[in-house]
Amino acid sequence: MSDIYPVDPDFAAHARIDRAAYARDYQASVRDPDAFWAQAAQRLDWFRAPTRVRDVSFALEDFRIRWFDDGELNASVNCLDRQLATRGDKTALLWEADDPGTAPKHVSYRELHARVCRLGNALRALGVEKGDRVTIYLPMIVEAAVAMLACARIGAVHSVVFGGFAPNSIADRVSDCASKLIITADEGLRGGRKVPLKANVDAALKLPGTDTVETVLVVRHTDATVDMQMPRDRWYDAVVDPQPAECEPERMNAEDPLFILYTSGSTGKPKGVLHTTGGYLLYASYTHEAVFDLREDDVYWCTADVGWVTGHSYIVYGPLANGATSLMFEGVPNYPDFSRFWQVIDRHKVTIFYTAPTAIRALMREGEGPVKATSRASLRLLGSVGEPINPEAWRWYYEVVGDSRCPIVDTWWQTETGGILISPLPGAIDLKPGSATLPFYGVQPALVDANGQLLEGATEGNLVITDSWPGQMRTVYGDHQRFIDTYFKAYPGMYFTGDGCRRDEDGYYWITGRVDDVINVSGHRIGTAEVESALVSHPKVAEAAVVGFPHDIKGQGIYAYVTLVAGEAESDALLKELVAHVRKEIGPIASPDFLQWAPGLPKTRSGKIMRRILRKIAENAPDQLGDTSTLADPSVVDSLVKHRHGA
Ligand code: PRX
């Protein structure tokens, strides 16, 4: 039996949604989704209100996902213009620098509006038109949000690339969507270390397939000297500052693209997940308001990076569409010391704090001291996202960080889902440590077995969603068939999440992790195939197989098995070189934690690598290898077990 933390009656008394309201509205949302979402759509400002709500079929022969498809709106108008009348002087973005000695910035809705308009005008002047793609490769600075919203204003489709990615990864993402313009900065700053963003862009643009880029706008951030290649490279301030502070917003159809965000899958290169304007914005704003029980005077802080979907939906679009104050943090949890998060909370009187289990676990390791040195009295609600949170970390978060006062919302969702699908509503749903609990309005989760049979009651299976919700991705950019094949083929008529999940006797959902070849490292998705192809691109590597293994802090770590080209000698120097090679090819987040030489890999007679066996060896569970008799050469397994890292 698991622990239950019942809804706090004091919290519920002031909450937007209580138990009865959730039960009633959830039922209504699945009984008559058209009526429910038509009503919900009124939370947005439309140039032309939609008369149609949903046009959806997950059937392969008749596939379509369309929401509000005769409506017209602009996302930046919803995030900015409509706030001006009542919230013009309210802080929209509260920026906290990497270095606590640098003064924080308070950017009001009025100022943010002006800055977005200036950049929108500048982009238009540089020839960016509705539908063009713009790549954003920026650190966590205000310009990142300005850039996203300026694209939205003129109907350009932004593709934010996480600042930790290496030139190759930037180039892949730029060429896949044929970006016309890149917005970057001289350098980023994280934990006191400089990140050479502009130099990375320069290196990326030397790679094939990137010649669609006409302009690189460079924000001056650290004032480092960088190479400027004229006329391609332009200083952001020189181009943007002279522009007028009003910019006519583009009228976008609800189904016009808002952004592309690349994410790793189990095969091939990262997919360009495409989200559209109306459904996405509605879903991001509604979930943000309901799950975080948002109030007008909240200071809301999500610690994600804008390079990931959490930053899109819950730093920028959701909070700003709701007129909230959203804190944007440039730094890392352990700089200058392990108390930084809690100091920032005290400094800005943060009321809602949303972070990832990996950060909690890393901070937990440092003990209570750095937390207890701070007050945190302003906090009223905590959130978790990105990976399963182990009950031990949950309790530490609840008791030590939240002083047993603040509910925790464990929010399960994905880049593909646009917003939170399964999560407690803090005034309505009792908490169980480690469970994302129950679905949001309109979301219909189900569990299926390997054959696609729906499973009833308390059980475990693969998590599917049986009907659409407005924030659902609409396609893989440039490859609609890949979208259908990836998500709708395994279990016909249903969206397959790629996650395994348990449902308990109360109907609560417990996500157990990915069931495909995706590794979740510190809440970041890494495809094993990407790491393998980076390894194999090294001239001395013949073959590589990569699997995840349980890691105390990161959730999962990366374990690589490498077979060298005949005649190449195994050495510690080469091992280090290969790890560095992966960092250089993809970025530091994909660095293997362990690399093991594998003279041979376990393969079936048809040549397929048996990853199940490699996973068990990496997990140090050689007694669970299962049947190895179908292998072409069963003896390779013994040798791998014997030479396992640390064995
Ligand atoms: O495995 C699930 C895990 O993260 C995956 C989605 O990763 P990404 O698209 O990068 O988005 C992360 C931020 C939404 C999911 O398939 N995941 C995310 N949130 C949770 C989670 N696993 C368990 N509990 C969560 N709260």
UniProtKB/TrEMBL annotation:
Segments forming domain Acetyl-coenzyme A synthetase N-terminal: 22-79
PROSITE patterns registered for this protein in UniProt: AMP_BINDING
All copies of domain AMP-binding enzyme C-terminal, residue ranges: 530-608
Entry binding sites for CoA: 190-193, 310, 334, 522, 583
EC number(s) per entry: 6.2.1.1
Substrates-to-products reaction catalysed: acetate + ATP + CoA = acetyl-CoA + AMP + diphosphate
Keyword Cytoplasm: no
UniProt cofactor(s): Mg(2+)
Keywords annotated in UniProt: Acetylation, ATP-binding, Ligase, Magnesium, Metal-binding, Nucleotide-binding
One Pfam family linked to the record: ACAS_N
Residues engaged in binding Mg(2+): 536, 538, 541
Location of N6-acetyllysine modifications: 608
Top EC class of this enzyme: ligase
Residues reported to bind ATP: 386-388, 410-415, 499, 514, 525
The keyword Transport is annotated on this UniProt entry: no
AMP-dependent synthetase/ligase domain residues: 80-467
InterPro entries registered for this protein in UniProt: Ac_CoA_lig, ACAS_N, AMP-bd_C, AMP-bd_C_sf, AMP-binding_CS, AMP-dep_synth/lig_dom, ANL_N_sf
Superkingdom classification of source: Bacteria
Entry comment on modification after translation: Acetylated. Deacetylation by the SIR2-homolog deacetylase activates the enzyme.
Gene Ontology terms, MF aspect: acetate-CoA ligase activity
HAMAP family hit by this protein: Ac_CoA_synth
Cross-referenced NCBIfam families: Ac_CoA_lig_AcsA, PRK00174.1
Function description: Catalyzes the conversion of acetate into acetyl-CoA (AcCoA), an essential intermediate at the junction of anabolic and catabolic pathways. AcsA undergoes a two-step reaction. In the first half reaction, AcsA combines acetate with ATP to form acetyl-adenylate (AcAMP) intermediate. In the second half reaction, it can then transfer the acetyl group from AcAMP to the sulfhydryl group of CoA, forming the product AcCoA.
Sequence similarity: Belongs to the ATP-dependent AMP-binding enzyme family.
Name this protein carries in UniProt: Acetyl-coenzyme A synthetase
Organism: Luteimonas kalidii
Lineage: Bacteria, Pseudomonadati, Pseudomonadota, Gammaproteobacteria, Lysobacterales
